[in-house]
Design a protein that fits this description.
The complex is a heterodimer of chains A (168) and B (267). Chain A has 168 residues and is mostly helical. Chain A has a domain of 27 residues. The relative contact order of chain A is 0.06. Chain B contains eleven helices and eight strands. Chain B has a single domain, classed as 3-Layer(aba) Sandwich (Rossmann fold). In chain B, 36% of the residues lie in helices and 16% in strands. Chain B starts with a strand and ends in an 18-residue tail after the last helix. Chain B is of the alpha/beta class and 267 residues long. Chain B is globular, with a radius of gyration of 18 Å. The chains are: A mainly alpha (168), B alpha/beta (267). At the A-B interface, helix 3 and strand 1 of A face strand 3, helix 4 and helix 9 of B. Strand 1 of chain A pairs antiparallel with strand 3 of chain B, so a sheet runs across the interface.
Chain lengths: 168, 267
Amino acid sequence: MNHYDDLQRFKDKTRSQALDFKDFSAQSHAQEQGNWAIINQLLPATEVNSLAAGGHVSLSAPQPVTEETFAVSELTPVPQAQVVEPAPAPVSSILQGVDEQLASTPRQAAAIPTPTPARVQVSHPVTEPEQGAVDFTRLFAPATTKPAPAAEKNQPLNSLLERIATCR
Amino acid sequence: MPLVCVCSPKGGVGKTTMTANLAYALARAGSKVLALDFDVQNALRLHFGVPLSDSRGYVARAAESSDWSQFVLTAGGNIFVLPYGDATEPQRLAFEERLTHDEHFLTRGLSTLLNYPGLIIIADFPPGPTPALKAMSRLADLHLVTLLADTASLSLLPQIENQRLTGGVLNQKAGHYFVLNQSDNRRQISRDVTAFVENKLGEKLLGVVHRDESVGEANASQQSVFDFSPASAAAFDIELIAKKVAGILGVKVGDGTVHTLPRMSGF
């Protein structure tokens, strides 16, 4: 198809004059306009399309910021550690009670002597590693069977249960 | 509150485009960034998707409002724009008059934004010496002078060295740096100017942005060059400049600093 009347000859040949063919050849493609947001906004408003007014469809038009966007409670930067720290919030009595109870439990558990890997060191007597060196004896030691934490099972649940019972 | 001023003795060198794309680059790196417009052309906003018909801005109401942060616009995310807005001739003259004579005018209007920790402000100025540039230079941490890779820009280099932009040292803190814009390797004059500037300015030249169609096309689409054409030469060049700017300013992202307390659910 490299003659100027190609389309017409094609129509005559195929007897398809009724069909409205579109010419997608290179020349007509070059005349097409790009879709530029700025030009679209300056074009005379022939067809009012609210979606086209904002420029790019994938971008929402910028809106004013809310008042608290740039409001800083303290002018100094808040370090991470302070944020993580639980704030002493005014909580109700039951929560306070449970909180105290939970806080006291690990302290009591820590008081119980934990099993030390003394047995391992006895079975593999090696010279003491230097400061900063990797302790290979510990690293490659056979896994010791952990003694069941039997002592923790009957820890001071009684006082917690009592407290919960009195809250009713 | 790092504050960068993008200025030039010459017009049409791409200050506004540089400001916008630098803001996008720094925002992509994780910083909160505000692009601030001091140019009556009011074109900076267009780079951030603000419609052409939108006339909002701070200048028209700068005198009566003490806090200009209420005029900041955002489409969400960590990038913000404070447009100059549509201002009448008397409003513009009144604004410039206040800038010239009221020493605290800028500090007052921008205090919320200047005091917001970690917010990088990049200000765009009209060409040449202006009251806004002079007033902002006192607060700025860094000046970025944009030049084109042609002899017209080159001939204005002595003006900058002779302190003709603000009548004094351009920047007292980190100093002033240069960006060479629209360098074109295919043109003899552009090559020669680029080589000359690289030799003359040395470390003061932060970067060279190559001439790139995608910059203009991104502007026409109201997008950043990073969104429009992420693999373009200009996107690469501007990203590099943004990294250098962040390095000079000592911007640190992701070091665990929390500037505002996180929102608690209302329990």
